[in-house]
Amino acid sequence: MLSLQIPNIVGDSIPSAHEELTLAKSLPLDELIDKLIAGCVTFAINLTIAIIVFYIGKFIIKRVYKFLNTIMHRRQVDKSLTTFVLSMVKIVMYFILIVVVIGILGIETSSFIAIFASAGVAIGMALSGTLQNFAGGVLILLLKPYKVGDYIEVSGYAGYVREIQIFHTIISTYDNKSIIIPNGGLSTGSINNWSREDYRRVEWTVSISYGDDVDVAREVLLKMFDSDERVVKKYVEEDRKKYIEDDLEKKLEIDSDGDGIPDVMQEMDGRSWLYRIWHRRKAKMVKKIEEMRKEQIQGTVLGSHAVDRSPSVTVSTLNNSSVDLVARAWTRTDQYWGLYYDINERIYKELPSYGIHFPFPQMDIHLNRVSD
Hints:
By secondary structure, this protein is an alpha+beta fold. The protein folds into 4 domains: 17-126, Helix Hairpins; 137-193, SH3 type barrels (Roll), CATH 2.30.30.60; 197-234 and 308-362, Alpha-Beta Plaits; 241-303, no CATH class. 53% of the residues lie in helices and 14% in strands. The chain contains 12 helices and 8 strands. It has a 5-stranded antiparallel beta sheet with strand order 4-3-2-1-5. It has a 3-stranded antiparallel beta sheet with strand order 6-8-7, with helices on one face. A hairpin with a 4-residue loop joins β7 and β8 (323-332). α2 runs antiparallel to α3 and α7 (214-227) packs across α12 (336-350).
């Protein structure tokens, strides 16, 4: 709405709309038309500038968003953190753009910001639970108690983390059910993250009959562990070093695009296209790979803190019908269940061939004959 710039004739007081209309009627028609035309032209110019600024700003926001997305992807920033940061940056930039456009149109931005802040306070009070979930999401992304792909157990649910969104986390169970859990409770409650450590201990309880040779059962179980490559033979640090080296050797053989540079190099180096242009010599690639290998296995060298993780078999419990042995072995977390089920099957198939029996629950009843 256009407002005529009429001199204030009532001292320091602000003239009312009725007074402005009265004064406008007192002006000559030509002067009134000139003022209206000038106001319309000024508004049209400001509107045109505002539209141009809006589309230029929108173009810049898209470019900045794409640039940040590319940088964070090349730096292999956590996927959940990338989504959160990009969303926040986009919202903030659009808010600034809208404020600038409103200012160009001649609307007082300070009043607009004050109204927006007041509305934000009111909405915040109405959505206190939602804001708690938002704050929880921020804490989760900063402190990283878990990340996308981890297997967690929380609030009676267990599954793989599929998404970490601003207000809630989505996990997928083994039977492919999607569980949506608010971030507020996740940030303050107890979380069992099964994937946080790269190695875990696997445990089996093997029940044998009374009279069976415990030493034979122990020897057979230890042979099973020794023949399985997934089992840590003594030190976790040695196994981790061997795994990293073997994994890199396998990846070095994969060159899907046939440019002479293994795919693992392009994944590890954020400047992959520059690398393909300027670093084609094999010697430089090998040197770079060796540097990466040393960096990855740093800290895996044995020291005074190394703990013996050799497999063990001990007598745990003397039950009513069985002698319970507890067998323990360490393996990589991603191989936990595969090793557990395979050894279970081997125990069932192989132990009987060594004279070891699996007892059934039984009860001995003694009858005393009473003579007449």
